[in-house]
Amino acid sequence: MSVKRFKFVSPGVFINEIDNSFIPKQPDAIGPVVIGRATRGIAMQPTKIESYSDFVTMFGETVAGAGGRDIYRNGNYQSPMYGTYAAKAFLRSNVAPLTYLRLLGHSTSDGDSTGGDAAAGWKTTYGPAQAPSANGGAYGLWLFTSGSAANAVLGTGSLAAIWYIDAGNIYLSGTVYGGDNLSHQGATGGTTGSNNTVIGTDSDNLFTVVISGSDNKEQKIRFGFDDSADTFIRKRFNTNPQLLSTPGTFYPSSVAKDYWLGETFEQELRDRGFTSGSLGVMMAISKAATTGPWDMEPQSTREARTGWFIGQDLGTPAAYVPFSQQKLFRLVGRGHGEWLHKNCKISIEKIRQSTSTTTGYGTFSLVIRDISDTDSNVVVLERYDNLTLDPTSPNFVSRKIGDQYVSWDTEERRLKTYGDYPNLSKFVYVDTDADVEAGAIPDDLLPFGYFGPPRFRAAYDVNASGSVNSSPGGGGAYKADGGIEQTTFSSLFLTGGWGIVSPGGRDGSATMYLSAGLGIATAASVSALEGMCTGSFVFPVVRLRTSASDGDLSDPKDAYFGMQTTRTATSTTHDKSVADYHRLLYAEYTAGGGQNATDPYNVTGVEDYAYVFSLDDIVLKTAGGTDFYYSSGSRRRESSFTSASYENLLNTGVNRFTAPLWGGFDGFDIKKPDPLANTNTGMSATSTVDSSYVHNTWKRAIDTVTDPEVVDMNLLVAPGLTTTSLTAHMINVCEERADALALIDLPSVYIPPHEQYYSSRSSRIGTTPTNAANDLKDRQIDSSYGCTFYPWVQTRDESTGKLVWIPPSVAMLGVLGSSEAKSEVWFAPAGFNRGGLSEGAAGIPVTNASEKLTSKNRDTLYEARINPIASFPSTGIVVFGQKTLQERQSALDRINVRRLVIYLKKSISILSTQILFEQNVQATWNRFKSLVEPFLANVKTKFGITDYRLILDESTTTPDLIDQNILYAKIMIKPARAIEYIAIDFVIASTGASFDD
Q1: Burial of 14 (0-12, 13-18, 19+ CB in 10 A)
Q2: What is the pTM of this model?
Q3: pLDDT per residue as tens digits for the range 847-886
Q4: Do 329 and 364 meet the contact criterion of CB atoms below 8 Å apart?
Q5: What values do phi and psi take at 742, rounded to 5?
Q6: Measured at the alpha carbon of residue 384, what is the angle toward residues 380 and 387, in degrees to the nearest 5?
Q7: What SS3 class is residue 876?
Q8: CA–CA separation, 655 vs 634, rounded Å?
Q9: How many domains does the chain have?
């Protein structure tokens, strides 16, 4: 230190303390990116996870496959989700965070136009357009309470269940309603039946369905709707869409089916008394030849959302129209697909009008709840209190929850973020109405209700002009004018009929005259159809809470009006059918790539809102009492509690309601056990983003992490992905970034059942070490930024105890993490000390290898730069190699050196940012050296390098570079090499030899 820095006033000894022992701040730990499926969590966006417990909270537990029978309702868990095992294996080492990129299905606009393998989503093989004679598509069973045969009146029927038919026939069989008094298509009285014939239950209150597949072999199945009985519909019918696959593809031909049971609506059936003594009608569900619930293609993943939350009515009660109320905001999922509407619901509570003289804005709370909870036992996933609609307030709803969302830019192949406020919720973001954002609404507006989800249009009796009446139903919601809309059969998502022959197949082109007969008529005269049944068809909606006292609440004011998710109105048990009411109704996009409908749906045959709920329709049963109940239309009738003022209701403490999320979709082909498998049709070494939605989904995920300024990583892993063009792309991405190592899997090493059904286990070994070596050589990969291992290994799923075969990249990710935890990143992740899989080096238990390699096998693999995983009788399963995929011999043809250099480059670049924009002078150079040299010395001390040299002076940073604002330094290192071969001479000496010689 210069003496000029001392202050000399009078004689003496002056001492200054200089601390050069500061340890430079270490950069945050950097970990891998894992790409794969998961049961839940934000998808197609990199999400950083610090611990395995955090991973389980966000993405769920590991999935071993063969995970359940009711796949359509509960989700597809039929194949292992390898990414979840990789995350578990690595995060158990606790050395660094992990970034997970969950996959959901996406196709390109060109793929949507092409259809087939290129389009995301699913559909039945046949539908109204493909082959009407094959009878494919969606078929619904409507239930009616016992009607009057004398008057041929059925009353109102509710949709009870939907079957999806690939090819074949389905119809009710049993006693025909009305006997010989009524004629029916395909039957005249008696006990026969056919499609669209009214059939009653038998003596056990059960229906019988006759269903046949493409082989025309009929099967009769008796069933009911009591979910506690063995005859429950979901127990009697196939609910696994994957059984429709070509026999022998994923399942043996002995279990193949041509149909599956889709949605069932037990909650409404209980509420309307349809569980026993009912009549049934089977009808096809389709709006037109190219649109219907059977055709969810091409539909990429779609986010669940709430309907718009609306404000209270500030006008005259008699003129109240729910559909006209001011939209405030809605919530949209952040990338969860179907999981969100199946597992979450939204409650608005603690609604309070303003009591301040400085603002008219009131406050409210928003709670994201577990869909299976009850109002007496609320399970909170996230809570946001003291929210306001004041856009200038720190508590503005968009600011407190976040309104940012990401969108994929197809031209730049990257994610772009839109919105003003960062997301604090891991489930949803806020989509605010433009008037609210602009502060252009009355400031006393509060969230008072919501628009319900869309549903297919209901069909009611004809009016005087002969057209079919339609009503939104669902408890008395209104159209914009407060009346009921009229429509014809061509506007409905219903086809078929009985008693009248359809003139145009099942395309819904003719008028349906319900008052004279339920069917498709070509005759203009209604009188020509006399003698037929009359009835109405409705599509179900979830129950809305009627009474505040339902559910055994200790305080009725704790009741949440709006959607009710319990089995009955008074029950405290969750109804599993609730999620079925809120599925995506049909594909939003057409085969030409255009959008079918905006949101809410503006399409013929679909009601924009199944209902509108508002606290404005809350009624007090007895003056002075506490028995509040919901009565749709009560405000319009001027009998609601808010008829005088909405504040009256809030002052009593009735200030909460619950709304559903609806319309999520995963974008997967549900007829595949693994919708992203390498063997899916359309996937090959030459597939492209436009020829295969599976290829596009994987590539989009890989492209998401190409920018090192967006995602920081040192490893890239896509466990189970073996398509060569995509794994080569992973290596290219890492090489372009120059800061990560791609850990890839080879094709056909082991072919799991979800990729292809085989009659023998031995045939799942799809290649040999020699063939694998030759195939890799033919690919001509020459990069130190990639590595691979052979063969697959077996683990034990710790949640279920199942044994699962996993690709070697899963185990190796665990080995790389545990090796770093035991030593450092530059130590070889192999051998008995750090690569002993049987000893727990993988972070998860490894119990077996798909092949036991001989010494010759290992030599063949290692010469081809494939790292063998060896099995030894005495020491177990061990990683026995650590080569990269670089062909040329250099220090970088080993994993430990490549990872060392990646570590050094990342760390030094982070340290270098401390001098960016400083003056390019000697003092700054010295500062750079003081940052980097201790770091390199530390690495040398820990055996990462044997020597190094840092040069930064006038010979590197020359005057012309200074003029270009460049500081140029040279760092030379000698990496420490791992011992891979041990040579020992054993000299056999004679008795008289001296060892000292």
Answers
A1: exposed
A2: 0.89
A3: 999 999 999 999 999 999 999 999 998 889 999 999 999 9
A4: no
A5: -85, 125
A6: 145
A7: strand
A8: 17
A9: 4
